[in-house]
Amino acid sequence: MLTGLNHLTLAVSDVNRSLAFYRDVLQLRVEATWDAGAYLSLPGLWLCLSLDPLRKTVANPDYTHYAFSLGSADFAVFVQSLKAANVEEWRDNRSEGASFYFLDPDGHKLEAHVGDLASRLAACRQKPYAGMRFYDEQ
Question: Is 125 helix (H, G, I), strand (E, B) or coil?
């Protein structure tokens, strides 16, 4: 049986550029590096950067993205630091909780989000999505 998210691996076109972004801009901890990759971490997250020379620099048009948590007290300062680093925003927030949607140097879609599943479900109970059903109410 699955027990949780193990790790995220992102294909990158330039390991050093991506390492600098995740280490210096997002402030993940560097655990190991090698010629074709790096391991970084946050509490509860293992991130692998893996060199892929075929990686396209244009972001995929779908909504697939990776979200990082942060506290509400840190949100505005974090967003300002991303903007100061000229990080590209790819979407406006349209849901519960403060969110900033941004791209990494290879166009991977990322999000910084204040809130969790419990706060999202509480907001959805107040204003449900079309056809939404809550399974703890059976």
Answer: helix
Catalytic residue ranges? 111
Taking alpha carbons only, the member of 22, 11, 10, 51 closest to residue 34 is 51
Full-model pTM: 0.79
Instruction: Please give the DSSP secondary-structure letter assigned to residue 124.
Output: H
* Helix runs in the chain, H state only: 15-20, 72-84, 117-126
Consecutive H or E run containing 60: none
CA 47, CA 39: separation in Å to the nearest integer?
Answer: 6
Task: Provide the edge-to-edge strand list for the sheet that holds 29-34.
Answer: 8-12, 45-51, 37-42, 29-34
Mind listing the pLDDT tens digit for each residue in 51-102?
Answer: 887 776 555 567 778 899 889 999 999 999 999 999 999 989 887 889 999 9
Instruction: Give Cα 92 to chain centroid, integer Å.
Output: 15
The pLDDT tens digits for 20-31 are 999 999 999 999
Residue 4 buriedness (CB in 10 A; 0-12 / 13-18 / 19+): exposed
